[in-house]
Amino acid sequence: MLLDLLLPRWCVVCARGGSQLCSSCRDALPGLTPPLCELCGAPTAWPVARCRECSGRRLAFASARAAVPYDDDVRRLVRMWKERGLRHLDDAFADVVAGRLARPDADVVTFVPPDAWRSRQRGHRPAERLARALAERWGMACEPLLERAAGAGRRQSSLTRRERLRNPAFTATAKDGRIVLVDDVYTTGATAHAAARALHATVHVVTFARTVRRA
Tell me, what's the pLDDT at 57? Predict the structure, then answer.
């Protein structure tokens, strides 16, 4: 394409030309290997239905899975994608997710909408872009089923873990069926829980990365 000739793409990791994340660097990203918590997808010492991270919590989603751990290198990639305008990284991230996670048994893909302030600041909607790229790879429809509720509260990045569990709020335009809910990073599960609760459906959460807490 003409735009690619005028604005060539370089791998943000190794500076090789051709794409913003070359296949070699993409394949070298760390993985989340079993055993994993059956519910939230956290790495565990042995297979469990619920782990220390989600035990005792009423989570509204049926499962959560991520493609990579949210370590320092992945955090830098996500920041470039979300905050520095490297929008084509969503295609590379979608390739990683689709290559490492099985296609969920669901009817439609949706995404966690950003708050209005973040959306204006970034000029794009990262989770939506990732969701649409994944839907294309999985041969599924992608629909905007969620909206931020009016007065939903403060931005997640400014909150403690306890506050995150209480802050997010969404309204939904569809409340049945089996839904894949896409977001960029799974941190505490609070956002995924709030979105799934609004949907009132069987929700399978899929994210590019997730925070891994060490014992």
Answer: 93
120's CB contacts (< 8 A; 6+ apart) are none
CA angle 30, 35, 41 (to 5 degrees): 75
Burial class of 1 by CB neighbour count within 10 A (0 to 12, 13 to 18, 19+): exposed
Six-digit token pair at 201?
């459906």
**Of 1, 29, 27, 24, which is closest to residue 11 (Cα–Cα)?**
24
Q: Quickly list H helices, 58-125.
A: 72-83, 89-100, 116-122
Model confidence over 126-158: pLDDT tens digits?
999 999 999 999 999 999 999 988 755 555 555
CA dihedral angle for residue 108, residue 199, residue 161, residue 183, rounded to 10 degrees = 20
- Report pTM: 0.87
CB 176: neighbour CB atoms within 10 A? 10
Q: Which residues of the chain are modeled with pLDDT < 50?
A: 1-7
Give residue limits of the domains in the chain: 33-210
Beta strands 170-172 and 141-142, pairing class: unpaired
Q: Rounded to 5 degrees, what are φ and ψ at 17?
A: -75, 155
- According to CATH, the topology of domain 33-210 is Rossmann fold (3.40.50)
The residue to which tokens 């000739």 are assigned = 5
